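Data's thin. Show one?
=====
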Amino acid sequence: MTEYTDEKVLLSEIKQNNKKAFEFLFKRYYPRLQGYAIRFVEDEEVARDIIQECFLKFWEKRELLSAVSVTSLLFAMVRNSCLNYLKHLSVIEKHQIEYLANQEGEERLYYADFALDAEYGLLYDELQEQIKIVINGLPERCREVFIMSRFKNLKNREIADKLKISTTAVEKQIAKALGSFSKHFKDKYPLDIYIMVLAWVIFNE
């Protein structure tokens, strides 16, 4: 199997539908992601299902990705999915945030669920407001397509049919919206917050 030492090259190959590159990504990061997920859900089988679902979403949305750390994005996706799982179990009843300071590399991500805590509730409110600013600042057609894709969970083909445009046009509008989010948050916030928002915008459903 080809070794990919450059994440940009790896992402480029995946975006070009290179399944071998995607297989390399899966085998390279699965063990670390599994250990990371188990810290949240404390169940190996659940962790495995979450990781597989994250990789599936990554492959399905591969064409939307650009200029982002693949490693950080994967960890953010897994973290978000783990928190969603815990919420469904009613395990998390209030805001929790603790820095995983004993880990190395991309495992040093925030364990965050913004809800009731006043201090971090302010950050949550701020991010929500910034997201609204970006959405409202998008060109009309771009905003319309993004909302249909992100908030109404419509497939590109469904959006194209409703708006009577091509799927290529839909993809371009979504890419334009993601570019606006990327620029806005990358310039204003630390990398961990930027990656968290990007993972939410692209993958959260």
